[in-house]
Design brief:
SBP_5_dom; SBP_5_CS; 543 residues; alpha+beta; signal; six-stranded mixed beta sheet; Peptide ABC transporter substrate-binding protein
């Protein structure tokens, strides 16, 4: 339905991670010695860096990059992204679609097993999806399933679990009915939130996902060690239905959120893959070990529209227009990212064959004179002689801090505002942001599926992804119309209207669009990184 054609260029691998600084000991092999032993022992051990502790290995809760990187390798859904970034059969060996496009029937592979040897059943998918949609689970991913009949009503507490149109016709037949045809459905369910959960295991132990000893997955690898906040390890899953395609024996994941430290570990062969520190981007741009991948998402800041002075849209727009995005990507992040002048990223081609971002154009630009004017008008409307104190909040990371300092400087230069900075530990930061405790706070977004709607629907009233308290009836209606529109040309026009309205009201202001640059050791191959998707190590190898 959509073509995702993201231009390859460099960027930080920061999307969604929101890392903290933690020290990590030198990784060891099973023999207890440092790097190099795996070759002598004949094992293939890949050393990766996850940045920080995964939020959760409950697939319904771990809705961010630091959880997805592991979940996509220790678990698997009905479909999986292939080397061409397309959703193909995975745990399901066959997918039948009804003539009206509403009913999907998935046939689960006979040899699909859990890491403990149990067969993967259709009932495990029913159990997992209902767990995700259960209001008590409070899954941030639940909105992704709202295109399933009965899902939204149940998640909102207005319906019952029995009303969700998913069923296990038998142990190997899983049936789903949608509210309207959705060609992106097979792509959407590659998201870890739609992974199955072993019902027998989870019913016996609700905390099954919190430790390696109790974790049960169905992916190419199995979780074998987990030293919380330090590292975790996974090994090849001999019960995986396609175990013959898996080449690595072990993957060791460090948790180091400092890009410079990660790079030093890479240099000393403690990591096989690392991000590129911004300060070394010029030096490393011609390295033979540099890898460039597309990534759909953006770095942005949220306003709390219930907290003064950002209840006023003119004041919000003034701050958004006081930011020089070109300066940030050139002098702060320094990895060639594209400045974001709208919320929807590049890479989405419409039915007219044109790029969404180019068609909509620049919706928020650096304009110091207009910013000053808007601030003055907004303060007059609110009766302010002096602007209330402004605080920029961000989670612990050198890169986040550098960006916050750049914003602080620009707000002073353009608006004459002395903004304060607040640095908060990552785990606390996310929960506090969800509880609307910050006045202005940094954030990031990575696409869950390849459609502009995925980014725009985050800001409907009451969405768990909103985190701004902003509510706009016209915007809510636009998103509802987009979901129900079957004419692709009309739908594309509505999507553009939504992007424009979001930037006119500006409950958020974008800074730059993501892409991904990593350094990868010679001999490492087969790591899949998708523009919209999750790192896949199923076919990875190390020689």
């Amino acid at each position: 339905m959509l073509a995702l054609v993201l231009a390859a260029c460099t960027a930080t691998k920061d999307a969604g991670k929101e890392p903290d600084k933690k020290d990590d000991p030198k990784p060891e092999t099973e023999e207890g010695t440092e790097e190099g032993t795996e070759e002598a022992a004949g094992d293939k051990i890949l050393y990766m860096n996850n940045g920080e502790e995964p939020t959760s290995f409950d697939p319904s809760i771990g809705f961010n990059a630091v959880s997805w990187s592991a979940l996509n390798n220790i678990m698997e859904g009905l479909t999986r992204m292939d080397e061409d970034h397309k959703a193909v059969e995975a745990t399901a060996e066959k997918i039948d679609i009804s003539d009206d496009g509403l009913t999907y029937t998935f046939t689960i592979r006979e040899n699909a097993k859990w890491s403990n040897g149990d067969p993967v059943t259709a009932g495990d998918f029913v159990f997992a999806w209902k767990h995700m949609l259960n209001p008590e689970t409070a899954s941030p991913a639940a909105f992704l399933a709202y295109f399933i009949e009965g899902a939204e009503a149940y998640n909102n507490g207005e319906g019952s679990a029995e009303d969700i149109a998913i069923s296990a016709e038998d142990d190997k037949t899983f049936v789903v009915k949608l509210t309207s045809p959705n060609e992106a459905f097979p792509n959407i369910i590659t998201n870890p939130s739609f992974f199955p959960i072993n019902e027998k295991v989870a019913s016996a132990d609700p905390k099954w996902h919190t430790e390696a000893a109790t974790f049960v997955g169905n992916g190419p690898f199995k979780l074998t060690k987990w030293d919380h906040d330090v590292s975790f390890e996974m090994e090849k899953n001999e019960n995986y239905w396609d175990a013959g395609s898996v080449k690595l024996d072990t993957i060791h994941w460090a948790m180091v959120n400092e890009s410079t430290t990660s790079y030093q570990m890479y240099q000393s062969n403690e990591l096989d893959v690392t991000d590129v520190p911004a300060e070394l981007s010029d030096q490393l741009k011609d390295s033979d070990e540099l890898r460039i991948d597309d990534q759909a998402g953006l770095y942005f800041y949220r306003f709390n529209t219930s907290m003064e002075p950002f209840q006023n849209s003119k004041i919000r727009r003034a701050f958004g227009m006081a930011v020089d995005r070109e300066e940030i990507v050139e002098f702060v992040t320094k990895n060639g990212e594209k400045p974001a002048r709208g919320f929807v990223t590049y890479g989405f081609i419409g039915p007219d064959g044109k790029e969404f971002r180019d068609t909509v154009g620049d919706l928020v630009t650096y304009d110091p004179d207009e910013a000053k004017k808007l601030l003055e008008e907004g303060m007059k409307e609110e009766g302010y002689d002096t602007l209330p104190e402004i605080t920029l909040s961000y989670n612990t990371s050198e890169s986040h801090q550098n960006i916050a300092i750049a914003l602080q400087s620009k707000f002073k230069e353009v608006l004459g505002v002395d903004a304060k900075l607040q640095n908060v530990e990552s785990g606390v930061f996310l929960s506090d942001q969800k509880e609307f405790k910050y006045q202005m706070s940094r954030s990031s977004f990575l696409h869950d599926y390849a459609d502009p709607l995925n980014a725009l629907e985050s800001f409907i009233t009451g969405s768990s992804m909103n985190r701004t308290t902003w509510s706009n009836a016209d915007y809510d209606k636009l998103i509802e119309d987009i979901k129900n529109e079957t004419d692709e040309n009309k739908r594309w026009d509505l999507l553009q209207q939504a992007d424009k309205l979001l930037m006119e009201e500006m409950p958020v202001f974008p800074l730059y669009f993501y892409n991904s640059t990593t350094l990868e050791k010679p001999g490492v191959s087969g790591i899949l990184r998708h523009p919209v998707g999750y790192i896949d190590l199923k076919y990875a190898d190390k020689n």
